[in-house]
Specification:
By secondary structure, the chain is α+β, with helices and mostly antiparallel strands. The two termini are about 50 Å apart. A 16-stranded antiparallel barrel has the order 2-3-4-5-6-7-8-9-10-11-12-13-14-15-16-17. It has four helices and 17 strands.
């Protein structure tokens, strides 16, 4: 645009010069000297304008040559929704992303909704809603649906309405925030800051640091948000070990992508061990297996929660991938002044997706996790007024269990699933504790994805509990998504 304007200015100047020359020929003698001075000034301005145009033209030619010599920008690959990338994409996912110069692209429904972009920074925003409807033979539904984002009552439930913000802060950090709205059994709305953290994108030696409020990377299920679940509800063993909200807290996680020929990653999280979402640790909001909570201030690093994890992935064939991991969680609990909790877990995931698949279908995925907990429970004197009906000794409580699930994407948009679960505990001094009863549950379901922005899921649960007995439940779940969303973890 500046180049065109300068040409127009040059043409206007030349025209003015001609007009003034003609006027000078007809002007009286007393004005000839003044006109000559004006013409001289005009000529000087035209010479300066010509020099500027030559410099502008040289700069344009230089930029054109540099652009022709530079490599073309790599095309952005579309990520099919709810389909797993190849195992090698795990490496790409773990490596620090590079913040590139933003290119002008045509908008599409799958493109991120970018707001407030300044330079290389941007922000994506999305809104995801789950609506559950159904019925159960158990009138008090939360007795069998122990997750905070599970169906909460007969009829309708909105267990999760989630606003997500994420984007590049600068070339060094990416920021993520999740704000969740929920409706309880009385129709009251509650709000929670589910996650809010920054993660590095340029550390050396294949290191990555994440700092803030976060789902702890223990196993495969715990880090997932409800809209990523393959079933309507949280599995039993995660609920038994980590409580209704899952294991999440404020802290830092350092990960190292090891230099091996296969995907191999070591992670260590150090977090606060207090709060409802640290259910098996310094959780002071609930009755702790018959014992009232004890105030446990942080006196040393041992009062924090430490969560190590190792995960590896192997390509068995061109169409089969195996992922295996081990996790641990260690920290104090609030049932006594010097009591602690240890949780151990193993997990596995196998996926088959043939080379001739289309849109991610067909596929078969198997997933399982097993966990065991050693909970040192403190001594408690009988105090009926405080809810302690009998004297309880200091003891170690053992809880364990697993789930196994299979999902089969048999045709485009349609996925069938089956999950089996079992949890058990040793018999402690506080008997008839519904938080530790043995339970078995079997859950078949069928999911239809009209597009990557919506889903409809039908699920049946058969529960068998040592205390609660047998119950049957049927749930219909709807999901819709507005805005952008990232690729789901493989």
């Amino acid at each position: 645009m500046g180049y065109v304007l300068r040409i127009r200015h040059l043409a206007s100047g030349l025209m003015a010069l001609v007009i003034m020359s003609l006027s000078a020929a007809r002007a009286p003698a007393q004005t000839a000297e003044q006109l000559q001075q004006d013409l001289k000034a005009m000529k000087t301005q035209l010479d300066q304008l010509q020099q500027q145009m030559k410099k502008q033209e040289a700069l344009i030619n230089k930029l054109s040559k540099e652009k022709a010599a530079s490599p073309a920008a790599a095309p952005v690959a579309e990520v099919p929704v709810r389909t797993a990338p190849a195992a090698t994409s795990l490496v790409a996912e773990a490596l620090p992303p590079v913040v590139a110069t933003r290119q002008q692209e045509a908008w599409s429904p799958t493109a991120p909704m970018r707001l407030f972009g300044v330079g290389g920074a941007y922000m994506n925003i999305s809104f995801d809603v789950l609506v559950d409807a159904g019925w159960s033979t158990q009138q008090d539904v939360p007795l069998i649906e122990t997750g905070d984002h599970d169906p909460q009552q007969r009829g309708f439930t909105i267990p999760n309405a989630e606003v997500v913000f994420d984007g590049a802060v600068d070339p060094y950090f990416k920021g993520v925030g999740n704000i969740v709205y929920k409706l309880d059994q009385n129709g009251q709305t509650s709000v929670e800051l589910e996650e809010a953290y920054l993660v590095t994108s340029s550390l050396p030696w294949n290191l990555q640091l994440k700092v803030g409020q976060q789902f702890v990377e223990f196993g495969r299920f715990n880090p997932q948000h409800p809209h990523q679940w393959e079933f309507v509800d949280q599995n039993l063993i995660n609920g038994r070990m980590f409580g209704p909200d899952g294991l999440r807290s404020v802290g830092a996680r350092l990960s190292w992508l090891t230099p091996t020929s296969f995907y191999s990653e070591l992670l260590l999280s150090v977090l606060n061990s207090s709060g409802e979402s640290a259910f098996s640790f310094r959780n002071s909001s609930d009755d702790l297996f018959g014992r009232p909570p004890v105030d446990r201030p942080v006196r040393s690093p041992s009062d924090m929660m430490w969560v190590p994890r190792y995960v590896a992935s192997f390509d068995l064939t061109d169409s089969q991938t195996l992922v295996a991991g081990m996790s641990g969680a260690f920290g104090p609990n609030a049932s006594g002044s010097n009591t602690s909790t240890q949780i151990y877990g193993v997990d596995g995931f196998w996926k088959w997706k043939p080379s001739w698949q289309s849109g991610g279908f067909p596929f078969v995925a198997l997933q399982t996790e097993g966990m065991a907990r050693h909970y040192q429970a403190g001594m408690a004197e009988a105090d009926p007024a405080a809810g302690v009906p009998i004297s309880l000794p200091r003891e170690t409580l053992y809880d364990y269990g697993f789930y196994a699930q299979a999902v089969y994407g048999f045709t485009l948009g349609w996925v069938g699933g089956l999950r089996g679960e079992w949890v058990a505990s040793d018999e402690g001094a506080f008997k008839s504790d519904p938080n530790r009863e043995g339970r078995v549950r079997v859950s078949p379901n069928l999911t239809f994805y009209p597009t990557e922005f919506s889903k409809i899921r039908l699920q049946y649960n058969f529960d068998q509990g040592q205390i609660l007995g047998d119950d049957s439940s049927a749930w219909l779940q709807f999901e819709f998504l507005l805005g952008s969303h990232g690729a789901h973890k493989f």
